[in-house]
Amino acid sequence: MSENTRNLMNSPATIAPAKGKLGVLLVGLGAVSTTFIAGVEAIKRGLAQPIGSLTQLASIRLGKRTENRNPRINEFVPLADLDDLVFGAWDIFSDSAYDAAVHAGVLERDLLEQLKPALSKIKPMPAAFDQKYVKRLSGTNVKQGANKFELAEQIIADIEAFKKKNKCSRLVMVWCASTEIFLKETAQHKTIKSLEAAMKANHPSIAPSMLYAYAAIKCGVPFANGAPNLTVDIPAIRELAIQHNVPICGKDFKTGQTFLKTLIAPGLKSRMLGLDGWYSTNILGNRDGEVLDDPESFKTKEESKLSALEYILQPELYPTLYKDFSHVVRINYYPPRGDNKEGWDNIDIRGWLGYPMQIKVNFLCRDSILAAPLVLDLALFLDLAQRTGMRGIQEWLSFYFKAPMTAPQLYPEHDIFIQLMKLKNTLRHLKGEDLITHLGLEYYD
To answer: CA 423 → CA 285, 310, 426, 440, distances in Å?
Structure first.
């Protein structure tokens, strides 16, 4: 590597300062969104800690280990301050953030009462919604329009009005709403022109989530897709994001069972232990569980949850260990469980000389408690990306997703440890610091 190339790689990026208010627009004001908003408000008041958030708690090593430089991430890169966040949302129900949080039943009532004045002020805008895409839900706080393009224009108007009313200098948008029915990429998704024509024709290939992504990008607002919906993972939206210099990322927040899969599977592979089968079942009783009780919405989620193991284990490279392993995923709606999802995993593995062993995992997790810090990190990192001039797919944010987006010619990286290294190395690169490779070359001439 030439000295000029080395200097160029170590040159810090130009990052605009995080001045003014950052508006965080949320699609869906349900359990995840209200847990996120209430959590930020509680943290700002010193009532709780931001556990689970890299941007608030994680440090980042800089240089050699002997240098002992380990600043917090939010001290290393200029992220928006929590006090500068302003929240807005769309939802099919007209409940305020306070009422929606009470209904979701995630957070203790005592905490919500302390936050009631702030949460009660957040009222959702009418949503662009079509029950054909989320069959188990219906609501009255919905937009009306002649076609889907007109609905997108109404979302654009909402975005502009919110920014002006709240005097925001910047915005980000995060999809925290329900899983839509399974859709495949079609000709209508190929170009911006074909997408807009399909929107005007009310074509069934255009789901409501795509209207939000389209509107956000047209307004120069970064967009994160927290559900397994097709949404931004189509050529037209990727092209639009490049055209408008907007960062995008997705899809499907990596919270419970898949989070554990991306922890366990790399460990099995690192030791060259074989896998015969991985059976996963979930029970959950919140709105997400009700939506996923519909087979078409479950299909969307299943595709997202099934993809991780194949990419991590690479059976084409290690057929003796991983070819034709059985991978089964089940999700069952069980109302008494509420937001406290329970995930059971039975993992059949093989060791030395082919002898069988088993791993059994019972993860009694709180879905929205795991998702809320991801929403915060994504909002802050997308804003950082926008201020740095980054655009299009932000693969360095794959750490947060079950089915991370990549450039069309690349396969997604699912190993959570590689994802974390990529995220932190991206931050080092932006600040002109050496990337960490763990080679230990200081011992060689």
So the answer is: 33, 22, 5, 21
Per-residue b or e along 130-156, where b marks 16 or more CB atoms closer than 10 Å to that residue's CB = beebbeebebebbbeeeebbbbbbbbb
Query: Does the N-terminal peptide bond of residue 164 adopt cis geometry, omega within 30 degrees of 0?
Result: no
Domain 257-364 in the same topology as domain 3-253+369-430: no
Taking the C-alpha atoms of residue 222 and residue 179, their distance in angstroms, rounded to an integer, is 20
Our measurement of the distance from residue 262's CA atom to the centroid of its chain's CA atoms, rounded to an integer in Å, reads: 15
How do 342-350 and 356-364 pair as beta strands? antiparallel
Bridge partners of 344?
A: 281, 362
Q: Identify the residue whose tokens are 């002649």.
A: 146
Measure the CA–CA gap between 135 and 182, rounded to whole angstroms: 12
Q: Which fold has domain 257-364?
A: Dihydrodipicolinate Reductase; domain 2 (3.30.360)
Domain boundaries, the chain: 3-253+369-430, 257-364
Q: Is 375 exposed, middle or buried (0-12, 13-18, 19+ CB in 10 A)?
A: buried
Amino acid at 165: K
Cα separation, 208 vs 28, whole angstroms: 12
List the CATH code of the domain at 3-253+369-430: 3.40.50.720
pTM: 0.93
Helix (H) or strand (E) holding 85: strand 85-91
Report mean pLDDT in 10-residue bins for the chain, 445 residues: 41 95 98 97 98 98 94 98 98 98 96 98 98 91 97 98 98 96 96 98 97 98 96 97 97 92 96 97 79 71 75 95 94 85 94 98 94 98 98 97 91 94 98 86 46
Instruction: Evaluate whether 14 touches 76 at the Cβ level (below 8 Å).
Output: no
